[in-house]
Amino acid sequence: MKSYNISVLAGDGTGKEVTDEAVKVLKTVGEKYSINFNFEPALIGGCAYDKYKTPLPDETLNIAKQSDAVLLGAVGDWKYDSLPPELRPERALLGIRKELNLFANLRPAVVYPELTSLSPLKENIVSGTDIMIIRELTGDVYFGTPKGIEVRNSEKYAFNNMCYYESEIIRIAHVAFKVAMARNKKLCSVDKANVLDVSRLWRETVAMVSKEYPEVELTNMYVDNAAMQLIKNPKQFDVILTGNIFGDILSDEASVLSGSLGLLPSASLSDSKPAMYEPIHGSAPDLKGKNIVNPIATILSAAMILKYSFNLNFEHDCIVDAVRKTLKAGFRTNDIAQTGMVTVGTDKMGNIICDKVLQD
Ligand code: IPM
Ligand code: MG
Questions:
Q1: What protein residues have CB closer than 5 angstroms to ion ligand 2?
Q2: Ligand 1 atom with the shortest distance to the CA of 94
Q3: Rounded distance, CA 149 to CA 332, Å?
Q4: Chain centroid, CA 350 distance in Å
Q5: Through-space distance between the first and last CA atoms of the chain, rounded to whole angstroms
Q6: How far does the centroid of ligand 1 lie from the alpha carbon of residue 240, in Å?
Q7: Reported confidence tier of residue 1, pLDDT bands at 50, 70, 90
Q8: Which residue range forms the structural domain that includes residue 278?
Q9: 56: left (phi > 0), else alpha (psi -120 to 50), else beta?
C-alpha cells in the first residue's frame, strides 16, 4: 500500500476549519483507493508566535521538511498587527517559502460554469476562463538586498532591490513551459521590460528557454497591460509566467474572476521535496468558528498535492470531479450563495464532497 506523510500547518483564523475538511477528503480518497495518508500537525503564524514567540518555529520547519508534502491553511490575525515585522504571522509564509526553496507558485484561476453569475465581470467575458498563473516565489523585490529604511539627506529614505539571477529565471521558465505543454501550449510572460533592467533579463532569458519548447507559443506582455487584459478578455490567457511581485498582484486580480476567493487553490513547488499547498485566501479571523467559510480552495489544494507531489493524477481528478459535482448539485457555502441553491456550512460542504468522491 502506498503511504505518504503530509504535514498540516493549519495556521490562524479559519485555517483549521478548512484544513480539517481537506484532510477529510484526502482520507476518503485514501480509503477508496487504498492509499495511506499520514497527517502531522504543526504550528505556524500567530498561533506559533503565542507558543514559541516566533511565527515559524524550528520544530515546524523540521516537521515540514521531513514530510512528503505540506498542506497550509492560512496565517494572520489582527491581534498580531502591532508586532514588529519579523514576528508577524505573514513573515512565516515568506520564511517557509525560502526555507523549502519553493520557487514556483502555481495559481490556477478557473471560472466554474455554475458560478459565472457570481463573477463581477459580465458572464460572456468570464465564462470558460481557465488560467494558470506561474509566479516566481523566492526572488525579486521580496527578497532582494540591500533593503531598509534610513536617513539620507536629512530625511527618511526607504529602499528595496528588485533583482533576479539568470538561473532563477531559467528554472521558473522551465516549470512554466512544462505546465504549458500539459495544457493549451500558450505561455504569456509578463514583465516591465520597457522600464526595468530586471525585466529585460527576464524577457531575454524566457526567450532563450523557449527554444527548448518549440510547440509552446510564447508571447510577452507588460504588466500594466496584463492587468487590463485580465479583466477585458481573460480567455486569451492559458499560462501566465511572471516574477514575484507582479505575480502577487496579478494572481489576486485573476482570483476575483471566479466569483470567490474561497474557490482557488495553489501549489508552491521546489526542485526537491516537499512542496507546499495552500488556498490563496487569507485566514479570515472574523469568520473563525462560525462554520461558514468555503473549504473548496483548500480541498482543491489537497487535490494538487496528489497531482504535483505524488503523481496520483487519477485521484486528483477524482477530487476535482467531486467538487464540480457538488457545485452542479446545487450546494453552496455562504460566499457563493445563490438563490434556489442550498447553502451549507464548512463541514457539510466537506462531507458532501467526500460523498461525491465515494460515489464516483
Ligand atoms: C500571497 C500573499 C503573501 C505574498 C503575503 C501574505 C506575504 O499576499 O501569498 O500572495 O505577498 O506573497
Ligand atoms: Mg498576495
A1: 248
A2: 7
A3: 47
A4: 20
A5: 21
A6: 18
A7: confident
A8: 1-105+264-360
A9: beta
Question: Ligand 2 center to residue 247 CA distance, Å?
Answer: 8
Q: Which residues contact 346 (CB under 8 A, 6 or more apart)?
A: 14, 17, 18, 21, 291, 292, 293, 294, 295, 333
Place of cell 515585522: 85
Which residues are catalytic, by number? 142, 192, 224, 248, 252
Specify which residues 150 forms β-bridges with: 157
Enumerate residues lining ligand 1, CB below 6 A: 90, 93-94, 248
In single-letter form, the type of residue at position 334 comes to N
Nearest ligand for residue 282 CA: 1
Take atom 10 of ligand 1 and give the residue whose Cα is closest.
248
What cell was used for 177?
A: 513551459
User: Residue 53 CB: number of other CB atoms within 10 A?
Assistant: 9
Domain count, the chain: 2
Give the number of the ligand closest to the Cα of residue 45: 1
CA distance 64 to 175: 23
Query: Among 258, 282, 300, which residue terminates a domain?
Result: 258
Cα(205)–Cα(233) distance, integer angstroms: 27
Q: What is the pLDDT of residues 70-106, one digit of tens each?
A: 999 999 999 999 999 999 999 999 999 999 999 999 9
Please indicate, yes or no, whether residues 130 and 233 belong to a single structural domain of this protein: yes
> Which residues on neighbouring strands pair with residue 242, listed in sequence order?
135, 190
